[in-house]
Amino acid sequence: MTTPDARLAELEAGLADVRGRIASACAEAGRDPADVTLIAVTKTWPASDVAALASLGVSDVAENKDQEARAKHAELTDLDVRWHFVGQLQRNKAKSVVRYADVVHSVDRPELASALASASAKYREGTLDVLLQVDLEEGASEGRGGVAPSGVAALADEVSAHEALRLSGLMAVAPLGGNPDRAFARLAEFSADLVATHPGATWISAGMSGDLESAVRHGATHVRVGSALLGKRVSRHGSVRP
Ligand SMILES: *Cc1c(COP(=O)(O)O)cnc(C)c1O
């Protein structure tokens, strides 16, 4: 059993390590670390970890399952952090997600955008920040989600037609086992194309524990880091969870 103090020390060490990696990658790329937001991916970890990370200065946290995210947020309503939703999302969950999420990274089809827009108009005060998840594997592997690169422009137009949504940029996950530099270089090109027609959509959400340096090299504005910060996720069956 880890005591709260020991856990805080672990998280502090993880955070120092990850911030150090981001700073080095920025130095190599000639970028300002202030231009890269660290999002702590807290899925599978308890609300107490989210609170501990916030006490250490983490301003952004992400979850990938509605039920888990909703429960954690309910425990931490007063915590001053931005909540990001990064998982695949069914339309019928939109009503729930817009009540706690500030940003949804995983919009990949018009029906989901419509559902988020009507739910936001009904249940939220301000607009909801939305990123389009781009499929960099182009269907090669099952079910990470994402719109094909050829569909980004049309989906961007759909999203920006909704007043309750603000199109903020693109998100992607590098293909498993592929070359992240190649993947994130492509994402940077898609981002440049998008910004040419939607000047406000400048965010690039890319990079996780294993490939954040590559993402920073290719212009990521937001990195989503879980295991390097919080430790390996272990399921009840003892296997490491994706
Ligand atoms: C889990 C997850 C992450 C974080 O992955 P780590 O390898 O633990 O850093 C980032 N993005 C998404 C979409 C995730 O589901």
From TrEMBL:
Domain of life of the native organism: Bacteria
Q: State the name under which the record lists this protein.
A: Pyridoxal phosphate homeostasis protein
NCBIfam families reported for this sequence: YggS family pyridoxal phosphate-dependent enzyme (TIGR00044)
Listed GO MF terms:
pyridoxal phosphate binding
Q: List-wise, which residues carry N6-(pyridoxal phosphate)lysine?
A: 43
What the entry lists under PROSITE patterns is as follows: UPF0001
**Residue ranges constituting the Alanine racemase N-terminal domain according to the UniProt record:** 35-232
Q: What is the lineage of its organism?
A: Bacteria, Bacillati, Actinomycetota, Actinomycetes, Cryptosporangiales
Provide the cofactor list for this protein: pyridoxal 5'-phosphate
Q: Which family does it belong to?
A: Belongs to the pyridoxal phosphate-binding protein YggS/PROSC family.
Q: Which UniProt keywords apply?
A: Pyridoxal phosphate
Matching entries from PANTHER family are given as: PROLINE SYNTHETASE CO-TRANSCRIBED BACTERIAL HOMOLOG PROTEIN, PYRIDOXAL PHOSPHATE HOMEOSTASIS PROTEIN
Q: So what does this one do?
A: Pyridoxal 5'-phosphate (PLP)-binding protein, which is involved in PLP homeostasis.
